[in-house]
Every structure is written in C-alpha cells, then in structure tokens.
C-alpha cells in the first residue's frame, strides 16, 4: 500500500518533469512572454525546493529527542527568508548571477575566487545532500522492512532516474506543485490525526507524561549500537530470549529488538547521548535548545543564527529567484515565501507532541527521524492508518526528491562549470556521478540526526557565503582578497569546530560552541572580510558595479 | 513516420569569428552616469536603512523570545487554553509575525524605489 | 578611493618633501616606516634579478621557460581593467622580473594599477611626469608613449633597478599595452559589426506582411489595425532595441509578433506551437538571436510546402544552460548543405543563420554556436544553448 503510493507519486513527479503537462505552457495563440512568472508561483517553487526531508521528518523527531526547543529550527529556517528579502533577493537578481560563484566573479572580478566559492558550494551541498538520502533510506527501511542499505541505494537511484528523465529542467511548475503536495500531505494528516485522537490523547499532548516507565509492553528496535544505563533490575526479552539486566551500563547491538515489559523502568541513555532530556521531563518541556549543562540561551541563539543566516547561502535556493523577471519580482517572491513556509511549519508541533506521547521509546533507539510515519498506526488501525502512513511517506519522499534534485544540480553545476577544466562540461554525467558518490557517504553516516546534519550545512553557508553576499551587495569596499580571507576563516572555523566537536564530546557550553559554532564563526568571518578589505586597494570600478545592483529595474 | 535520422551539424571552426577560445572576460566596467550613480547611492542608502530597521525588529523578536523563555521559566508551564504558552510562543507566534514583518518591509522597500524618487523629479530631497 | 587611501595616513618618505615642498603632506610623521632604500637592499639580496640573469646568461643560463611564462602572464594581465586583481598580479610578476620593490602603471584618464608599497608617492610622481623621464629617491617614472605629451601611459618603478633593465621593462610594457589596445579596438569593431548583423530584417517578409495588411484594410479594418500594431511591435524590437542583450521574454514577444504576421500571410498553412518554461524567460540573450531562426523555419519549412507545416519553438532550462529549439517538419536538407549554410558558403541561403551563429560564438564562446539537426525529408531542428548567466551579459 505505502510502497504503491510512493511509486505512484514518484511516477507522477517524473512524468510532470519529463513531459511538460504542466511544466511548460502550450498555447495556440502563443502569448507566452506577456504572462510572466508571478511571485506567488515562484514563491511556491522556492518553498517546494526548500522544504526538505529534514523539515518534513526531522524537526518532529528532534522534538521527541531534544525537547520542545527543537521547534526553534523551523523558526530559523523561515527567518532566513526575511534576510533574503531584506538583503539579498533584489540586488542578487539584478546581478544576473545564478550562483554564488558566478556572483563572486561578476562583482569582484576574480576567477580564482569563483573556483574557491565552487569548492564551498560542494562542501555545503554534500553536507545537505547526504542527510537527505539518509532520511529517505531510513524512511524506506521503516515502511517496507528492507535493509537500510537497500533503502539508501533505492533513494539514490530514484534521484538519479528522476534526473535523467527530465529533472535537469528544474521546472518551476514542478516545484510549485511539490510545495502544494507537501503542504497538503503535512497539514492534512496532522488535522486528521488530531481529530482521530481522543480527548485523553489530546490532553496528554498538552502535557506529555514523563517517560520513566513503560506503560505497556514495548519493543525497542535498535538499528544502531546504543549504550543504555539500567536503573533497576529488569527482565527484557532480547530477540525473544529473556535476559535479566542488572542496574548499570548495558550495550544494545544494532540488530537487536529488546522487549520491555509493562511497568518496567525506562533505562537512561549512556555514552555521548547521556545529556539528552527525557521525553516529557522538565528539561524537555522548556522550549530552548541545548538543555543540560550547556547554556540554553546561547545554544538557541546559535541555531537561530546559523539557520537564518545560512539560508541565503544555500546553493539550490538562489537560482530559483532568477525565474522572477526582475529584482522587484524576486523581492516579492522572498516575502511570499516567508508566509508559505510559516504556514507549513505551523503543523510541526502537532507531530512533535504526538510523537512524544505515543512513541517515546524511539528516544531509546535514536530512530526519531522517522517517528512521523509510525504515528497513524498508534492512533488508529486498519485502512485509515495505512492511508495516513502512505500519505505521510509520500509527502516525505516528495520532500526528499525535490530538495535532492535541486542540490544535486547545484553541486554538479559547481563541479562541471567552475572546478573541472572546460571541455569536460558534461552536467548530466557529473550529476549522475555525484548521486552515485553520495550513496556510500549516506551508508557511512547512519548515525546523524537529519535536522542537526542539515544545520551544519547552514552553519557553513552562514560562515562563508552570508558575509560574501551581504558585503558584496551592499559595501563597495569589499575586495577579492578580503572575500577570500573571510571565507577561508569562516570555512575552517565552522568545519573545524564541528569536526572537533564531534571528535571530542566535551559537553557543556564549550562543547556546544564547538558543535554549533555559528554564533562566533559568522562574526569572525565578517570581521576578517572587512579588515582585509580595508587594508586592500579597492578598484575604481567597484562602486559602480555595486551601485548598479540597487538601481530599480527599467531605469 | 519513417523519417531519416537527423544529423547534428555545427559551423566549421574556422568560419567562427574567433577560433581561439574566448579569453577570460573581465568584469564589465560598469560606468554609471553621475545622476544615475547619485540616485543609486540614495536608493541604496534608503534600502539599507529600511533593511536595518526590519532586521532589528526581527532580531529583537527571535533573539528576545529565548531570553524571555529563559528568564521566565514559568511560561513553559503556564497554560493558555490547551497548550502551555511557552510552546505556543515558539511553535506558532513567530510565523505570523515574520510574515507581517516581511509584508511591511516589502511595502516600504518598493516605495523607496518608486519612480517619483528619481533625480530631477524629486521635489523634496531627503533630509 | 584614491583620496581615501591618502587620507588613511600613508606617510610619504622624507625625500618627497624635499623634492616637492608639499608641506601639508610632509607634516605627517615621516619616520613611520623603515627607509625604502634599506628595504629594497635587503630584499634585493634575496630575489634573483632580471639583469643579473642577463649578465649571467653565458655561464649559468636562467630557465628561459620561466621568464617567458612570466612575460606571457604579464601581457595577459595588462589586458585586464586597471586596478583589477589580474592587472595587479601582472605588475607583481613584472616586479619579479626586474627586481623592483613596487611597480605602478598609470593610464590616461586617471586609471591606475599599483603593486607594492609607496602607492601615493609613486602615483603622484607618475602624474607629474608629463611624458618625461623622472626620478626621485628610488622612484623612477618612465613614460611609455613615444611622443611626449601630457596624458600618456606612465610606468613607475620603485627600488634599485638598473637603467637598462628599466628601459627594457618599459619597452615590453609599452608593447603589451599597444597589443591590448589593438585587441580592444578589434573587439569594439567586432561589437559594432555584431550590432550591424542584427538589424537585417528580411525585406521579403516586410513586403509580404504589408501587402497582407493592405488586403485587410477594406475587408476587415479591425484586424488590419491589430496587424499594424503587431507590425509596429515587431519593428520596434528589431530596430529600436537599446542594448546588445534583451531578456528572452522580449525576444519571444518579437517572435510572437512575427508569427502573428506570418499567420496573417500564410493563413491556416502555418501551424505553430510555442512552449516555454518560465524559468528561462528572464535569461538575457543577444537581441534578435531567436527571431531569425523562426523566420528561417517558416520560410524553409512551411512557405515552400503547399500543405503548410508545423513550427515548434521551445525553451527550457537544463541546469544552468537555457536550451532553445526551433523545429519545422519541412523538407529538411542534407547535412553537407547545413554545414555550408553555417559556413556562409551555401548558394541561395541567406546570412541570417550565419549571423546568429557568429554572434553566439562571439558572446558565449565557440562551443555555444548553433546546432542544426537535419537530414533530407526529416525536417530541421535548430538548437541554441545559451548560458543562463555569463558575466558581462546583462539585459538592458
């Protein structure tokens, strides 16, 4: 059932992309040009491209795992378009540059800077693309019961095939349709589930009980090796064999299913996950991130800064604004996008709370990323649950496909046009090669939280492209050398800090500042860019080149 | 339809205007006339000011809310109807406010580049 | 910007004050930096000299490939706009060749490029040179033009450079500049020629359209008026477009105007399908890159066939390339003939396709010329692949 819906959806998407039913206009009286792309349509396309599997699945899962503070992630994702609107959309559209590397060359006149920007695009693209494939793989694993690697390979294939069959067109109508589909498949089931849920469940949602004891016999399907700390002697059926666990640390292998009896105490998480809050607990209920000894205020700010400032540097988003006929259209597109994204994210809290009440045990197995699709079966049964699960799966897969295609194109564009020697300009081949290359990466990175991994892509974008765009568009004094210095600083600080933070689980505020470095790496990149530019010679054409971007169109 | 296969043909390389590869194209030397440059400077300044105001409001909202939630932990427990107020402040409140802010900024930004702002027709130069 | 740099407080060294007597500049702390001559001596011992290499050539030959490479890079860099990073880099290499501590190139019209310290002093000296050789401290200004005049190019060298080396470097730079100037002139001539190419509207079509409109004037005056308006729109785009590039949407409007007129002339024999994806409509393209192709398809695919034919025009994005195709189901042609058409050697074929092809190659590079897919009795499809963004290509 679910599989059929996913396949049907995939076919529909591919067909629309390949045979221009709605993707291209067929007119008998051929009045094409007078009908320009409306900002509304374009904003829907931007949102369709932007809402990824991380938004569809990841945020609700993070609410179960990290607490209601995870609701700040989508706020930052949306606020990014406010920055896009105020600082980037109109002048960037007028520059004509489709990509940040292209902008760097056109504004600062440096080929080598363009190539460096392309390297950054590749870093951001990979950091964003891999978690998408991970999420899609987990999703397929969950709904069809295949091995994780099969799910990942099928997801990679789906992207590759869609691309070969017309995904290269990046058609506006397809992406706009994808947004409508995602909104429908996200909001519809949310409302439906709320109606199906009885009054006691709705009351529980408003105050999820702390997850200290299993209220019923509960299987926990560990798909990854996990460290647990048992607090009282418990008899657990490990793959059907009863085992008595003494209080103390225990290790669950990645292929085991532990069946906890009703009334048993819930074990605590050990290892590097020990600081995560207990679902329904006090820390969980405080809507700030980084609960535990890490300063919650700073953690929340850091995520907000990374997501809001990183949006403008995402390689697959900027190109969409070029469908607008002019700078004014691009600005309107950005403004409408804020509203469209907001209407989508209003529903995340429903899934987050339902998941915390109904599937808190996913917190133990760390498989919260796919919590959403397990919810319908917990609320109702029979065909209603199957239909709801299928709808949610389809929506999540649509989100995965739309974003992955855009990312893949941006990534391959940077590789094929900016980094490879000319003559090797085979965009389609490069795209297929990239999609083949990210599959093994996704197989290695099973453990990542989809939303957290996506945030690392935002952090890198915020520390490199955000200063480049903001200063390049608004300050005549930016020079190529300054841009280099700032971006190298931002890239090494953000990537280095996040790598260090993963390698050394420090904990506390220091550890948090390593894993979420945006709060200091972004200002540092800005400062570096400004300082080096001030010491450099500004070419005489710089001011006019910058000013032209602010002249309204048709003047 | 049994058509012969089409063959793809391009111009022989020698007839091209240049047979050598196009050299690295420098940045086009954008040169604005003085009036236009002055006008662009004004518009840029006006837009920057508006952007700063909008972003300050946005930052106050988004960076201030966590401070409020941190300073008044009771908000997370205090219920307004069905859900705790603290959760609503994060889950729902920011979106309409961001959309309003976006709409407000859009209107002001478009007004800033209305044609009656153009040089020569500008009756009252900005103070 | 220059003033801003001067105001930033780069203290001129003492020699400046004595030679010039410019007291308000001399007021700044003169000793704020180490003496330039000392710097140049300490540096000169580290860096191989151009002149040393010349002298030593008989005994230990320097790597000529290296020197030639540097020369080529310098010549290429001097073609870039003054002040651009590439131009600065060219001067850096020039300094490496002759062992100068700083090199500046002052061009007519106040444009300048500088590499190394002492920018303000050097520029001021160069501006005072007025076609004469001028030296001051260890700064040396060499005019590059043969005729002494007020406003010529001046090369300024700082540091301990032998007069012979300085003369050679100046000669080399003057040659490179002259070549760059000639190339720029050629490019301008090319641009003018390209502009000329695009204004060729088929007189055959204008005649047909006007006679058709005339035939409607009595029988259907409303339609005649509409057609005249369409004709005006077509002419406006073809003759009066301002810049070299126009958004594809505008180009499509011209195509639509053309097709409306052609349908009035040909009636039901002409069937048309236009399919354009919205994301390519804003792409800037050379003015009249598309309309001649459509006209060609109508002329060769439809007009000659008594049963008429179908012309399909499509535009879509493929990654960062915009692919436009014009297809007819007419008689087609042999690939050899198509090749001859593009080469401009085919008999009886107009120059419309050649012109479009040359303009596209000139703007976007040789791999972006027209592609004609055709065979006898197979119709013809002409494909344009235009980058959606090319630095320097901006619609007016």
TrEMBL record, chain A:
<keyword id="KW-0813">Transport</keyword>
<comment type="similarity">
    <text>Belongs to the sodium:solute symporter (SSF) (TC 2.A.21) family.</text>
</comment>
<keyword id="KW-0769">Symport</keyword>
<feature type="transmembrane region" description="Helical">
    <location>
        <begin position="333"/>
        <end position="354"/>
    </location>
</feature>
<dbReference type="GO" id="GO:0006847">
    <property type="term" value="P:plasma membrane acetate transport"/>
</dbReference>
<feature type="transmembrane region" description="Helical">
    <location>
        <begin position="385"/>
        <end position="415"/>
    </location>
</feature>
<dbReference type="GO" id="GO:0005886">
    <property type="term" value="C:plasma membrane"/>
</dbReference>
<feature type="transmembrane region" description="Helical">
    <location>
        <begin position="518"/>
        <end position="538"/>
    </location>
</feature>
<keyword id="KW-0472">Membrane</keyword>
<dbReference type="InterPro" id="IPR038377">
    <property type="entry name" value="Na/Glc_symporter_sf"/>
</dbReference>
<dbReference type="InterPro" id="IPR050277">
    <property type="entry name" value="Sodium:Solute_Symporter"/>
</dbReference>
<feature type="transmembrane region" description="Helical">
    <location>
        <begin position="148"/>
        <end position="167"/>
    </location>
</feature>
<keyword id="KW-1133">Transmembrane helix</keyword>
<keyword id="KW-0812">Transmembrane</keyword>
<keyword id="KW-1003">Cell membrane</keyword>
UniProtKB/TrEMBL annotation, chain B:
<feature type="region of interest" description="Disordered">
    <location>
        <begin position="1"/>
        <end position="25"/>
    </location>
</feature>
<protein>
    <submittedName>
        <fullName>Uncharacterized protein</fullName>
    </submittedName>
</protein>
<keyword id="KW-1133">Transmembrane helix</keyword>
<keyword id="KW-0812">Transmembrane</keyword>
<feature type="transmembrane region" description="Helical">
    <location>
        <begin position="51"/>
        <end position="69"/>
    </location>
</feature>
<keyword id="KW-0472">Membrane</keyword>
<feature type="transmembrane region" description="Helical">
    <location>
        <begin position="81"/>
        <end position="104"/>
    </location>
</feature>
TrEMBL record, chain C:
<dbReference type="InterPro" id="IPR010559">
    <property type="entry name" value="Sig_transdc_His_kin_internal"/>
</dbReference>
<dbReference type="GO" id="GO:0000155">
    <property type="term" value="F:phosphorelay sensor kinase activity"/>
</dbReference>
<dbReference type="InterPro" id="IPR036890">
    <property type="entry name" value="HATPase_C_sf"/>
</dbReference>
<dbReference type="InterPro" id="IPR050640">
    <property type="entry name" value="Bact_2-comp_sensor_kinase"/>
</dbReference>
<dbReference type="GO" id="GO:0016020">
    <property type="term" value="C:membrane"/>
</dbReference>
<keyword id="KW-0808">Transferase</keyword>
<dbReference type="Pfam" id="PF06580">
    <property type="entry name" value="His_kinase"/>
</dbReference>
<dbReference type="InterPro" id="IPR003594">
    <property type="entry name" value="HATPase_dom"/>
</dbReference>
<keyword id="KW-0418">Kinase</keyword>
<keyword id="KW-0902">Two-component regulatory system</keyword>
<feature type="compositionally biased region" description="Low complexity">
    <location>
        <begin position="30"/>
        <end position="48"/>
    </location>
</feature>
<dbReference type="Pfam" id="PF02518">
    <property type="entry name" value="HATPase_c"/>
</dbReference>
<feature type="region of interest" description="Disordered">
    <location>
        <begin position="1"/>
        <end position="49"/>
    </location>
</feature>
<dbReference type="InterPro" id="IPR004358">
    <property type="entry name" value="Sig_transdc_His_kin-like_C"/>
</dbReference>
<protein>
    <recommendedName>
        <fullName>histidine kinase</fullName>
        <ecNumber>2.7.13.3</ecNumber>
    </recommendedName>
</protein>
